[in-house]
Design brief:
By secondary structure, the chain is an alpha+beta fold. It contains 16 helices and 19 strands. Strands 12, 13, 14, 15, 16, 17, 18 and 19 form an eight-stranded antiparallel sheet that branches. Strands 5-6-10-8-9 form a five-stranded antiparallel sheet. The protein has a four-stranded mixed sheet with strand order 1-2-4-3. The radius of gyration is 22 Å and the shape is globular. The two termini are 29 Å apart.
């Protein structure tokens, strides 16, 4: 940490109501911890934990006057670990947890520190769900600002498709509510590239009737049966209710109790199935899918929505070292499945349940793909599946091995992908990639214009940064 950085933060305003934490303070280490600890040695100079929008305003005004870039932490689940930059100023919204659900309208308003599991619990108390992500300790804010996909995307679209308005603090220190009727251009950009434009303090979503009982679980396939499943999956899904969602997770079998030693390191397909229709109709709804291949094991059963939307927590535990890449896959096939199986077979063999490599294909299409590509910054063109390539490990000595596997797999799968993508599920791949990931040149030009209007000094610099790619 430089003397200049320390001096710059000595006069942080005393009127800020929330905790103000510096290295060595009680609670700093816990506040510094985020999901991806690959940059565990990066220590911010100051973490300020806002209690309300006016605290965010005070911190933004201070940063602007000092010319200091801002990092924002809500859930801290970003793959690039931008929430905790070295020597930086972090505005932390994790203490902003208020949630209000209007049962009459189905609308849910929640502050920027709410996690997905907390949102699910609050909305399910009224029989509602908001389409969102699939790991319960993900922050709603970061997810929604990048677009938002999950088990309900095929049925209800992206998270931003259910987003009615956002309360934000812009870099001039003003609190604004943006929506289709108020600052519509900024609302357009916040839905997909919001990390670049303003700091969200609360969101209002339209909830949808889901649960409380759904059907979900994992079906395990051998490599041979996985190829059969993937060969017919697209056609079968075209005839299958949108109440069915499947994430096809290709991974090596980890060393877990009860698993035969000869299976450890073997590529398997773990099909994460979620059905949100009437429980008694599950078997009929899955008829086309189940006819495609014979599983090794079937662990699908009735569950609550909250249990279901945390099924994948174990696949990506907090506090490990992570790297990821990917994009959108326009169609599944036997050829894609075999390519992925070969990549997974070449991955480092997992040393424990929380280490390893996976390639995941959450199915999209449906309502998400029917949405207007130009309706918001989030891109969805060609998005039949997300391709998410992830490695996780614990030792710094293994960085090159695990990160290298992800980069190799991205290159191997690139000819199968669209070139656009879901920005939340891939690490920053540089300016050329960023200029295309949002879609058309016209969309990129509009984003650049919005960034220059709403953050001309690039105070919001710790992100997949638009101005750095111009």
């Amino acid at each position: 940490m430089t003397d200049l950085t320390i001096r710059a933060f000595e006069d942080f305003p005393a009127a800020f109501k929330g905790p103000v934490l510096r290295p060595g303070d009680e609670g700093f280490a816990e506040s510094r911890a985020i999901w991806n600890m690959r940059n565990a040695g990066h220590t911010p100079a100051l973490i300020v934990q806002a209690l309300d929008p006016q605290d965010v305003v005070a911190a933004v005004n201070y940063a602007r006057e000092k010319g200091v870039p801002i990092a924002v932490r809500s859930g801290g689940h970003g793959v690039d670990a931008h929430a905790m930059p070295p020597d930086g100023l972090v505005i932390d919204t994790t203490k902003m947890k208020r949630v209000f659900v209007d049962e009459a309208t189905g609308r849910a308003t929640l502050e920027a520190g709410v996690l997905l599991g907390e949102m699910d619990a609050a909305t399910q108390a009224h029989g509602l769900a908001v389409p969102a992500g699939v790991v319960s300790d993900t922050g709603v804010a970061g997810l929604a600002l990048g677009g938002g996909i999950g088990h309900l995307s095929r049925r209800f679209g992206a998270t931003v498709d259910s987003l009615l308005s956002i309360e934000v603090v812009t870099m001039d220190g003003a609190v604004r509510t943006v929506s289709a009727d108020s600052e519509p251009d900024l609302f357009w950009g916040m839905r997909g590239a919001g990390h670049n434009l303003a700091i969200a303090t609360s969101f209002t979503f339209q909830g949808h009737k889901v649960g409380p009982q759904v059907v979900s679980g994992i079906i395990v396939y051998s490599p041979e049966e996985a190829v059969k499943l993937c060969e017919g999956l697209d056609e079968a899904m075209r005839r299958t209710s949108r109440e069915v969602s499947i994430s096809s997770v290709f991974a090596q079998a980890p060393p877990i109790p009860g698993l035969p030693p000869e299976l450890i390191g073997t590529p398997l397909l773990l099909a994460v199935v979620v059905y949100t229709g009437p429980v008694e109709d599950y078997e009929a709804a899955m008829g086309e899918i189940n006819a495609l291949a014979t599983p090794m094991a079937n662990m699908v059963a009735p569950k609550t929505w909250c249990e279901t939307n945390s099924l994948l927590d174990a696949f990506q535990p907090s506090g490990r070292r992570y790297h990821s890449g990917g994009g959108y896959l326009p169609a599944m096939s036997a050829e894609v499945a075999q390519l992925v199986i070969d990549q997974v077979a070449a991955a480092p063999v997992p040393a424990g349940p929380a280490t390893g490599c996976l390639i995941n294909f959450p199915i999209l299409g449906g309502a998400l793909q029917e949405g207007d590509e130009d309706s918001c910054a989030f891109s969805r063109a060609g998005a039949a599946y997300v391709c998410e390539i992830v490695s996780m490990w614990d030792s710094e000595k293994a960085d090159d091995e695990y990160a290298g596997w992800v980069d190799d797999s991205v290159r191997a799968l690139a000819p199968q992908l669209t070139g656009t993508g879901y920005i939340n599920l891939t690490a920053d791949r540089g300016p050329d990639w960023l200029r295309t990931v949002y879609g058309s040149p016209e969309k990129w030009a509009r984003l650049v214009q919005l960034k220059r209007k709403w953050d001309p000094d690039n105070l919001l610099a710790h992100n997949k940064n638009v101005l750095n790619a111009v």
